[in-house]
Amino acid sequence: MTGTGRLMPRRREVHPVASDPDYKTSVSRAPTWPLLSMESTPSEETGPRFGHSLIGPLDNNLILNFTQGQAPAVGERIRVHGRVLDETGRPVPHTLVEIWQANAGGRYRHVKDTYFAPLDPNFGGCGRTLTDGEGRYEFLTIRPGAYPWPNRANDWRPMHIHFSVFGHAFGQRLITQMYFEGDPLIARCPIAATVRDRSQLDRLVAPLDLQNSRPMDYLAYKFDIVLRGRRQTMFENKPQGM
Ligand SMILES: [Fe+2]
Q1: Measured in angstroms, how far is the CA atom of residue 161 from the centroid of ligand 1?
Q2: pTM of the predicted model over 0.85
Q3: 162 is catalytic
Q4: Which of 30, 61, 72, 101 qualifies as a FRET site for 11, CA 20 to 30 Å off?
Q5: Is 157 a known active-site residue?
């Protein structure tokens, strides 16, 4: 958002290409006509407002939230944490962060996911939280499995977690994916490859954070989300950020 309160237009020249033959469905989805620029509406710029009353105590714990604590999900327990920051490194407090992911076998709880890895009856795959006053967030979850997808002859998505950061208005919502340090499938993924700049892609790869792991319980991964500026996180829908 600009200093005048208006949303900044997307900078198309730095956007990952909309159509890439190695990412087959992007070709049929990509616009073939010149884009039209439309003014945002007041409701897109002023709402919604989220409060802490929206968030339940287990909403950021994907190991337990699907069963409301009755039974844990199967898989390697991990903690994913970080901060949401603006382009000057200032924290973005009280903003809604949502995640969704496949289970440990690489299967989503979604009617269109027909991969034959089993569903985990104790894992839903969605979580949400609000950043604290210092822009910090955290999730407890399980490490998602890699999964195959119908693209080229044998394409697999690397292990990844989808992230949404809502900001303070519908028009500010940003979506991206977090990958895991050391995953050899990242370099082979046509979707990750739509981020042409390797240093930008590296910012989507969360490093192992042993210091914030808990012995005999979980490993930690650190994923800071920078909304704008030179060190910004690459977003699928708006890489230049808010
Ligand atoms: Fe995915």
Answers
A1: 7
A2: yes
A3: yes
A4: 101
A5: yes
Provide the residue ranges of all domains of the chain, joining segments of one domain with +: 68-242
Tens digit of each residue's pLDDT (9 = 90 or more) over 122-155:
999 999 999 999 999 999 999 999 999 999 999 9
* DSSP string for the chain: --TTSPPPPP-GGGSPPS-BTTBHHHHHHS--SPPPP-PPPHHHHH-----GGG--TTTTBTTTTTTTTSSPPSS-EEEEEEEEE-TTS-B--S-EEEEE---TTS--SSTT---SSPPPTT---EEEEE--TTSEEEEEEEPPPPEEESSSTTEEEPSEEEEEE-TTSGGG-EEEEEEETT-TTGGG-TTGGGS--HHHHHTTEEPB-GGG-BTTTBEEEE--EE-SSTTPPP-SS-TT--
For residue 111, the CA-to-ligand 1 centroid distance in Å is 14
